[in-house]
Amino acid sequence: MALALREQEYKTELVDIYHAPDNLTYVVEDAPELGILKSLGIVKDAIVQKIMTYKLGGPVLLQVESCEIAISKDIAEKIIVRG
């Protein structure tokens, strides 16, 4: 039950994608102005699914449309999403 309450908290507040719970879908609220992110479809109002965060400061695996993309921790911490 505590996990369900924690997931509900993330649905109403903004959080960076690195610290957001895995296996949920999010809407991008803010992302760095990097050409590579734009070309991958990670822009404001894009819908992304966070698949998982790799351990020990590793990358974040996201699904954007039908593509799976690994984003470094440094960039993932700058992508702000809401649930």
CATH hierarchy class name:
Mainly Beta
Count the DSSP helices: 3
Strand content: 25-35%
The biggest beta sheet is recorded as: 6 strands, antiparallel
Strand neighbour order, sheet with most strands: 1-6-2-3-4-5
**CATH architecture annotation:** Roll
Distance between the termini: 18 Å
Give the domain tally: 1
Give the total of beta strands: 6
Rg value: 12 Å
Tell me, what's the shape?
Answer: globular
Helix content: 25-40%
- The arrangement of helices and strands along the chain is HEEHEEEHE
CATH topology: SH3 type barrels
Low-confidence parts: none
- Give me the secondary-structure category: alpha+beta
CATH superfamily: Ferrous iron transport protein A (FeoA)
- Average pLDDT works out at 88
